[in-house]
Design goal:
Elements (H helix, E strand, L loop, with lengths): L3 E2 L34 H11 L12 H16 L5 E6 L5 E9 L8 E7 L10 H18 L7 E7 L7 H8 L8 E7 L11 E4 L6 H9 L8 E3 L2 E2 L4 H6 L4 E5 L18 H20 L4 H8 L5
Helix pairs in contact: 1-3, 1-7, 3-7, 5-7
Bound molecules: zinc ion (ZN).
Length: 309
């Protein structure tokens, strides 16, 4: 749910006019986990499960919040990633949790890449399909694509609680880390990735010129000619902030949604699932590049920090 501050150094590509037909796949409430990790119908089914009216929009501390977390844990469990909950109370005193799952890397000294998305939304008939069932579904698709591999660096998959109350879950994690934060070389944030068709582009914020992830994304996006990717720009008000304050660089994938942002019309049927699946695949490609890069990303973090200065 970020408010975005645009900076002069942004370099927007030409917005491509896309003529993609919407996915004609039948909707299913149960994700089809036999499909490819980045299958649009499977990703949409995962969003539908989290944004089901029975969960009433997953307000922090609600029954729907707990039910949403159970779905996420079950999926990570099925992938063999042994998710753990980090329980905390939000600012209203309601119990919620972050979910964390680890894919161990082969080189314990090479650092850690975190891929995160907030799982909560506003509740009270605000179902939050785009904000942020879409980000969670993208994170789970990346976990699906990478589980069973052994990257060089450890990858942590995270679903944060209480973001809508002020990025509380990610802030709690940074205050009470379950891993060595000094070893985190990159944080990938996925928040609202299901409304590409609104403007015809996805922002990849945090990609400042000198940062290693920026060049990796520039290389990776060549395989996604149907996506117009906005490189550059600084983001505010999402879960990357707590990491950035620690000097951890981030890439924040986000699509604008003027129509249904924090409205009751943020429902699964509005989702641009075809592009969302591609955004998940692009983010997954970047995670893989970061996790396997031979560059000394710990040294570059120490030198350049979050803003590439
Ligand atoms: Zn959000």
């Amino acid at each position: 749910m970020p408010l975005v501050r645009w900076y002069r150094d942004m370099r927007w590509p030409l917005v491509l006019v896309l003529a993609l037909a919407p996915s004609a796949h039948a909707e299913s409430k149960v994700p089809d986990h036999e499909a490819s990790p980045y299958d649009a119908a499977a990703v949409k089914a995962q969003v539908a499960a989290l944004a089901d009216p029975a969960l009433d929009g997953r307000a922090s501390g609600s029954e729907g919040d707990a039910a949403g977390r159970a779905l996420i844990r079950a999926r990570l469990d099925a992938l063999g990633l042994s998710p753990k909950e980090q329980a905390f109370d939000d600012d209203a005193g309601h119990a919620t949790a972050n979910i964390l799952a680890t894919l161990p890397g082969s080189d314990a000294d090479a650092g850690i890449v975190i891929v995160g998305a907030h799982h909560d939304h506003l509740g009270h008939k605000h179902l939050g399909a785009n904000d942020n069932a879409s980000g969670v579904a993208a994170m789970l698709a990346i976990a699906d694509a990478l589980h069973g591999t052994q990257p060089r660096r450890t990858i942590v998959f995270a679903a944060w609680g209480a973001e809508e109350r002020g990025e509380e879950g990610s802030a709690y994690f940074v205050k009470h880390p379950t891993i060595d934060l000094d070893h985190v070389v990159e944080y990938i944030n996925l928040d609202m990735v299901g409304s590409y068709s609104a403007r015809g582009w996805v922002a990849a914020m945090g990609t400042f010129k000198k940062l290693p992830a920026t060049a990796m994304l520039e290389a990776g996006k060549k395989a996604f000619p149907r996506l117009s990717v906005g490189i550059g720009g600084r983001a505010e008000r999402s879960d990357h902030e707590a990491f950035c304050e620690q000097g951890v660089p981030y890439v924040f994938f986000w699509t604008p949604d003027d129509r249904c942002y924090h409205e009751t019309c943020d429902t699964t049927d509005k989702l641009d699932a075809a592009h969302m699946a591609q955004i998940a695949a692009l983010a997954g490609d970047l995670v893989s590049r970061l996790a396997n890069s031979k560059q000394d990303l710990l040294a570059s973090r120490a030198k350049l920090g979050c803003f590439g200065r």
